[in-house]
């Protein structure tokens, strides 16, 4: 097996991009799917002391099957601690202990604001979405927020229809104005085409790396704002053999991650 | 004094039209038996709440028993958007419910405040987002933004919630209502304790002596409880740790059925209106899908390490 096998699918690459943002010892709030996959890949490779929790109330779960929701039955036996929403979202997240949170949404804008509430006007929605759930507090309070998104102009608009979850709101200084804790906010947007990061001055997302097979021009045309490009823009490192092995042999032997291909992450 | 009764009697006596009802569960320990009974008795004008709502709330909205929903989130999980909820807000079918939206931090904290007798609670979410710009039936009282009296910085206050009745499903309770859970809690401890009275359904009724063997598991004390209903399999298609697993197949059935008004009404007839109680529900499940599938949902058993409280 070569260092970078070429038989990977795009969702596997995205899961690796997420994993590489996790540092050893991080405390991570995860949802299902990508977040759990990313956090576990990190744990099995470079970040063995990273720990995970689910907002429903579980810390350090040891599921014997992939969890299908953050309330899944398989999260119960073997966990180190089980409480409830006030414990995880209040005591740990609002308490300032969460290093990394994963979020996704129907729309993500240039400041990393996320919409999971509605498409169209709030009072007469064209499409009514689930709402915040844990997203708003995670976006408000986690130190590094990693955002998963599909890369097209509709899903990455200049401005979300409804701001459910704060990124950098309307730019530099806005989080400070609202008294969101210092050192929190969006860190990276991981799409099926690219990795975007945030300009420390303007707080606007820019293109940091493009996935193999994608071009800078294509990515810029698929983004709903005038996407700036990093001076050192480069190709995203493809999944390494050790990362793929963890996903395929340990975490997801049935390759449920393929459902993300059907959802458009290609 | 025993508070043991049937779900029919508990809901008839303690859930009234127009009530504000907390309904616990997080897929884990969803009190589905009570939800079905509320629909069957055609309650109306209810205000319902909990963090992270799912198929049970969608079903009540579709059945028309809900007027208002204090919400953080509602979906069918793996099966996507909540169909009845969407029809209500997008098309006004069966009617447009009123929604007041918070998050999985602020709403549980509001229930905690209610349980603690606090008038309101400061939270560090919602700030700067459109969730501050939309106000529903609570109007000005959805939240207040003040300058902290301590450091002058912006701080958001949200009101305490005190539902008229809280409904939870637990693993075990005694006849007076001391209720014990294990596994994922969601907001049920604070939701139940914030409520003016509590209906408890349980997988099994145990003696007061059994409760006393591990009293740290009790989340609601008997003096708050008005009804205890022994109702095995009451969370289905949700799960109860140590008793039975999530029924993903049934979740798919609900998703398909709730996709249309006709399908949803047929689902209600088959699984709610034409079913008198939970025992009949279980029998119908076995008739429809076979005993093997019912048995297949049963949890494995693994003893915990015995604890001792002795001195």
What does this molecule look like?
The complex is a heterodimer of chains A (about 270) and B (about 300). With about 270 residues, chain A is of the alpha/beta class. Chain A has a single domain, classed as Glutaconate Coenzyme A-transferase (3-Layer(aba) Sandwich). Chain A is globular. The mean pLDDT of chain A is about 95. Chain B is of the alpha/beta class and about 300 residues long. Chain B has 2 domains: about 250 residues, Glutaconate Coenzyme A-transferase; about 55 residues, 2-Layer Sandwich (Defensin A-like). Chain B has 11 helices and 12 strands. In chain B, strands 1, 2, 3, 4, 8, 9, 10, 11 and 12 form a 9-stranded mixed sheet that branches. The radius of gyration of chain B is 20 Å and the shape is globular. The relative contact order of chain B is 0.17. The model of chain B has no long low-confidence stretch (mean pLDDT about 95). Chains A and B meet through α3, β9, α4 and α5 of A and α4, α5 and α6 of B.
């Amino acid at each position: 097996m070569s260092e970078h096998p070429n038989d990977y699918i795009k969702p596997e690459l995205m899961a690796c991009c997420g994993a590489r943002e996790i540092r050893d010892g991080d405390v991570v709030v995860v949802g299902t799917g990508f977040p759990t996959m990313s956090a576990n890949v990190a744990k099995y490779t470079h970040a063995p002391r990273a720990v995970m929790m689910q907002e429903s109330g579980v810390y350090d779960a040891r599921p014997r099957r992939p969890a299908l929701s953050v309330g899944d039955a398989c999260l119960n036996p073997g966990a180190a601690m089980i409480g409830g929403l006030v414990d995880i979202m209040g005591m740990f997240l609002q308490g300032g202990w969460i290093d990394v949170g994963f979020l996704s949404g129907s729309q993500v804008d240039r400041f990393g604001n996320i919409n999971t509430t509605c498409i169209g006007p709030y009072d007469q929605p064209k499409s009514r979405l689930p709402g915040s759930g844990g997203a708003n507090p995670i976006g408000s309070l986690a130190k590094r927020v990693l955002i998963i998104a599909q890369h097209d102009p509709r899903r990455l608009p200049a401005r979300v229809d409804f701001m459910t979850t704060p990124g950098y709101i309307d730019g530099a200084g806005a989080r400070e104005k609202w008294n969101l804790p210092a050192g929190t906010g969006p860190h990276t947007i991981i799409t099926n085409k690219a990795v975007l990061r945030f300009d420390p001055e303007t707080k606007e997302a820019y293109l940091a790396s493009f996935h193999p097979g994608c071009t800078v021009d294509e990515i810029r045309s698929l983004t709903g704002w005038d996407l700036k490009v990093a001076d050192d823009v480069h190709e995203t490192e493809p999944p390494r053999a050790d990362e793929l092995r963890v996903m395929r042999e340990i975490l997801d032997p049935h390759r449920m991650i393929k459902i993300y291909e059907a959802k458009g992450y290609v | 004094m025993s508070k043991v009764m049937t779900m029919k009697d508990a809901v008839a006596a303690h859930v009234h039209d127009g009530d504000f009802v907390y309904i616990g569960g997080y897929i884990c320990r969803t009190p589905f038996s009570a939800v079905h009974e509320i629909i069957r008795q055609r309650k109306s004008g209810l205000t319902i709440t909990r963090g992270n709502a799912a198929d049970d709330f969608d079903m009540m909205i579709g059945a028309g028993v809900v007027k208002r929903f204090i919400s953080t989130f509602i979906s069918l999980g793996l099966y996507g958007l909540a169909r009845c909820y969407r029809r209500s807000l997008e098309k006004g079918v069966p009617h447009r419910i009123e929604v007041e939206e918070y998050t999985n931090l602020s709403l549980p904290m509001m229930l905690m405040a209610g349980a603690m007798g606090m008038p309101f609670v400061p939270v560090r979410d919602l700030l700067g987002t459109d969730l501050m710009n939309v106000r529903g039936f609570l109007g000005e009282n959805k939240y207040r933004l003040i300058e902290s009296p301590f450091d002058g910085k912006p701080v958001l206050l949200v009101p305490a919630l005190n539902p008229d009745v809280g409904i939870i499903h637990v693993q075990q309770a005694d006849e007076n209502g001391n209720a014990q859970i294990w596994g994922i809690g969601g907001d049920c401890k604070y939701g139940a304790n914030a409520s003016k009275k509590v209906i408890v359904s349980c997988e099994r009724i145990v003696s007061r002596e059994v409760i006393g063997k591990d009293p740290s598991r009790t989340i609601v004390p008997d003096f708050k409880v008005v009804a205890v209903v022994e109702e095995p399999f009451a969370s289905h298609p949700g799960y109860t740790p140590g008793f039975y697993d999530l029924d993903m197949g049934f979740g798919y059935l609900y998703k398909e059925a709730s996709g249309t008004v006709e399908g949803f009404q047929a689902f209600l007839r088959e699984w709610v209106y034409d079913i008198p109680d939970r025992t009949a529900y279980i029998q119908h499940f076995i008739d429809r899908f076979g005993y093997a599938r019912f048995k297949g949902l049963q949890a494995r058993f693994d003893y915990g390490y015995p604890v001792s409280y002795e001195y």
